[in-house]
Amino acid sequence: MVNIKTLDLNLLRTLDVLLAEHNVTRTAQRLHLSQPTISVQLSKLREIFHDPLLLPDARGMRPTALADQLRQPLRQALAELEQALVAVQPFMPQEANIIWRIAAFDYGETTILRPALAQLRQLAPHAKIAVSQVMPAGLQARMERGEIDLAFHVRNTAPPTLRSRRLFSEHYRLAARKGHPALQQPLTLERFCALEHVIVSPSGGGFAGATDAALTAIGQQRNVVLSVPHFLFMVEVLKSSDLVAMLPSRLIDPQQMDSAEAPVAVVPFEMMMLWHERSHRDPSHQWLRELFASSATGTKA
């Protein structure tokens, strides 16, 4: 039987990350410790639990039966402890030495993160921000493991189990380079479909999206000739070619591009801020969420 009085909380935190990563090196990186330190802590944990806990295999390490039993109760216990501790610690942004990890596509980076960045740096000058690309399929698990604090994503593909807050609704406009002849005269549906279009496919290689669904519903099809993974690359393509695109309105700079309403109704999308239950009552997390929400809606934080 494990003696609770002899357990070091830091060892349990290490075990929690080891059971998530199955890798000593990645665990060391996440905990900002050296690899030898993690190896020593794993040895101590094996002595405490009288079990190997993690065994080497071809892909790294695999958990023992006991480790599998410990994983979820340990994660839940540590999360509850974190909530209990942060509840009595007020957040002081001017003094905070913290790393916030945010996930977003380039659209969210441009329309939500960038407008709030100056204020964030002013109010929390010692904080650091790590931005990564949002991957909806693994978002829930990464937030549960504490790898991501906050994400910006569209409502229709956001994991339903995460907490969320609506930031704004966005609509599409047909965009093209300055002086593009197709946008200098009334645009019929037939001419719209005949133009050469660019589309964003975050997963890569797709040639259909919300606009194509709207066209299919009325028996029409447009001419999509280029598929790219990012909106910002799409913008650069538009500015230097005769291609056109259905672009979210917040990305259209009228000084650099022309735009027009498309002759087909495309459903707008809603941008959401997403976070895990484990962070919901964290004062620092609450402060960060309010700052982004205020910036996105144009209200004072």
UniProtKB/TrEMBL annotation:
Keyword field contains Transcription: yes
Record domain HTH lysR-type: where: 7-64
Pfam families named among the record's database cross-references: HTH_1, LysR_substrate
Keyword vocabulary terms for this entry: DNA-binding, Transcription, Transcription regulation
Gene Ontology molecular functions: DNA binding; DNA-binding transcription factor activity
Protein family membership: Belongs to the LysR transcriptional regulatory family.
Origin species: Shewanella fodinae
Leader peptide range in chain numbering: none
Protein name as catalogued: DNA-binding transcriptional LysR family regulator
Domain of life where this protein originates: Bacteria
